[in-house]
Amino acid sequence: MVGVTDIKFLSPENLLNLATDVVPLLIMAVGMTLVIYIGSIDLSSQSVANMATVLATVTLPVAGAASALVVMAAGLLFGAVSGIVTTRLKVPSFIATLAVGGIALSVAQYVSGQQALHMDAGQRNHAFGWMQGSTAGIPHELVLALVIVGVAWFIQNRMTAGRVLKAIGTGEPVAVASGIRVERYKILAFALSGMFAAIAGLMFSVKLSGGSPTLAEGFLLPAIVAVLVGGTPLTGGVGGVMNTLIGTMIVAVVRASMLYLNIPATGQQIFFGLVLIVAIATTIDRSKMRIVK
Amino acid sequence: MFELQNVEKRYPGVHVLKGVDFRIGDGEIVGLVGENGAGKSTLMKIIYGAVRHDAGNVLVDGVPVSFSNPRDAMKMGVGMVYQEQSLIPNLTVMENIFLGFEKPFVRFGAIKWKKMAEAAGKQLRKVKLDIDPAMITSKLTFSQRQLVELAKVLTLEERVEGKLVILLDEPTSVLSKEEIDLLFGLVRELRGRASFIFVSHRLDEIVTLSDRIYVLKDGAVVDVMNSAEADIETIQKKMVGRDVNHEYYREDKQRPYDDGHVLLELDHVTIAGRGNDVSLNLHAGEVLALVGVEGSGREPVLRTIFGMKKPEKGTISIRGIPVRSFSASESVSHGVGYVPRERKIEGIASGMNVFENMTLSQMRNYSKSGVLRIPAERELARDWIRRLSIRVASENSDCGNLSGGNQQKVVLAKWRSSGSEIILLDHPTRGLDIGAKEDVYEMIRDMSADGVGIILVADTLEEAIGLSHTIAVIKDGEIRKWFNCQPGSKPSPYDLIRYMV
């Protein structure tokens, strides 16, 4: 629609910008996909990403490029905690991840002292400058994102872990009765989701050259929408990473169109909320959920 | 009078009811018998409105009716006393009795408890139960709850015109002798108010209580008998449909097992929560059948061996080595396979294709440092599709769309191909048609010839007798009697039933 009214909207340049802008969201959504694929949900992603922006900014002067590893490890840890709480303590994933998200947010607030931090431009360029560059007109950021999607796709489709996640999503009792240590793999899915969220936060933080406990605000809803619109239902088992790639593109186009049509950022969340409800209501496999509480 | 005319019901791949005619007069008690899978429960569901029939008529007093849910059926006076009790445990007795029908007691949006208690008391008197209607249901004994359930159905009397039809689904399965007598006395007294459809596995009770008996087999009524002329043996023969055929269970292929090679030993094992004591030995090539009534504790034994439950006491040894940690994955790595009773829930992952299902228990053999060798998986699936003549388009077909028999073959192939030496079969032929059943019997014989030890919980007694080398009769979680089951000298169902009940 927007493309018809303004031909510039569809220019390769504009589309490339569009894609690059959405990189952090894409990475978060890919992590989220793994969790939704097993029929759970991760509500901590946004807070973990927030925490990641703060940790990245704080550790950069000390650790340089290795700060990326610190951030990823933190994400992995928080995700694993969500997974352990869900599987061992049998707390439903939406509550477990909500709680872990709260903790992550608090860590971000504590570490940052409740304020926006800034990266030293020299240090940033030294450690992560390569991310901001581009080759043959294609931003490195975008290449990196596609590599990460590729890795996630490989895990999902070619590795034992991915097969197990599928089995859990389609029929967890079958996986249990086949002698699979289901809990470990569920924890793995949550841990990976945490790590992907942290990577998303890291890249966002590099992009904006700073960190704050509210930097990634407004990511959660679009990330879930991207997964569901892409075609991975809340009940899990079908869809996957590639679907989420498409879902994220849809979200990106919608978001850009809204900007173009001068819809304020505050209004966007209303729209995504509505899309989420519609997406869930139309895609959910009701035979798997007879009673909804 | 309640009548079914030529009622048909199909589910995808199965013809459950084939033109059933059924009639029950006012005040009559009708027995309904049939083997598992004969269509009894579907027939009942159609009668009380939980399932809609595909063709034919349901008539109440000669007028065709159509029930879209149990509430519709209740409006016409048809009520069900459920086997798995349907009362909500944390509500009071009176709340349960009038659940969903509180309207007469409501004034200005609030329930008048006194009025409800009075009405509930009246219902409870009908079933001669002297309890406080305000009692919490979970505090009642099982048989008291059953009577409350009956009282709940009897409230229909005041709400509908005409006579009631009440279904009793296995009402005696957990009652003591005295409680059964009490229930039967009550049912006979209530004939003036209602007619009863009585479903039970206990044929002697059916003969005692009912006026007429419908025998259901493979979805059709094969006989209607007057109880006065019926005897248990004839009913049983009609239910099975033939004298037990040796050919059917492949008895000619039964070979003696290897007496010297013990695969699995249970030494005074106490199954969790049962307080019992089970000991058994399973040899290579042996088919050991656990026989008992529903709820006698056969499944918990299987699930304990498979590691899904931890035994409280005793030792389980596999190939002479005691098992120390109990989990399904541990058992699988020791070569134990489990074909669960609920095929669609625990057996087959619908949404995954044939090769994904087959390698689910053995991905370690089909991967290298975590990366799957998908071509090898496909090869395996193609091989087993051929060996078991599984009817699928290809190894990429979604297992959810296969027929029950083909699904079961995939589950069996999963364990066979991973080289499991101890295979636990829980109702492996449940819901399969005759041809598929014979295929499964054939596979059991093949496995046994290959030296696999099998523990079988069979769908019917005949199946257990036909297939097994050894039978253990279980009652209340303990093995009461062992039978040797060599071809030519197999025990009869009666020999077993004596120890089952």
UniProtKB/TrEMBL annotation, chain B:
Keyword Transport appears in the UniProt entry: yes
InterPro entries reported for this sequence: AAA+_ATPase, ABC_carbohydrate_import_ATPase, ABC_transporter-like_ATP-bd, P-loop_NTPase
Residue ranges of every copy of the ABC transporter domain listed in the record: 2-243, 257-501
Pfam families in alphabetical order: ABC_tran
Molecular function via GO: ATP binding; ATP hydrolysis activity
Cited CDD domains: ABC_Carb_Monos_I (cd03216), ABC_Carb_Monos_II (cd03215)
Keyword entries, A-Z: ATP-binding, Nucleotide-binding, Repeat, Sugar transport, Transport
Taxonomic superkingdom: Bacteria
SMART domains, alphabetized: AAA (SM00382)
Record flagged with keyword Transport: yes
Protein name: ABC transporter ATP-binding protein
Species: Acetobacter oeni
